[in-house]
Amino acid sequence: MPQNLSNFILTVTNDWGALHPAVIHFPIGLLTIAPLFVILGALFPQSRKNFYVTAVLLLWFGTSAVFLSVSTG
Fold it and tell me: DSSP string spanning 24-67?
């Protein structure tokens, strides 16, 4: 492997900013889908608890992932 390429690979993998495009879409997806589960919980009373728990988990993971994505720049 040429010296220039190995330096480039190490630089990109150690840079948080390089992860930003991948990391930013994860919380967007989670936080966008969470309201769908709240609506499903309202429409299907027999499974309401499961839908609401799923919505809360999605909101929790999405909010946690926002801090990671902000740290990537």
Answer: HHHHHHHHHHHHHHHHHHHH-GGGHHHHHHHHHHHHHHHHHHHH
Q: Rounded CA gap, 14 and 49, in Å?
A: 42
pLDDT tens digit sequence for 12-57: 555 666 677 778 888 999 999 999 999 999 999 999 999 999 999 9
Give the pLDDT score at 57: 97
In one letter, which amino acid is 28? I
> Structure tokens of 8?
């480039």
Cβ atoms of 41 and 55 within 8 Å: the answer is yes
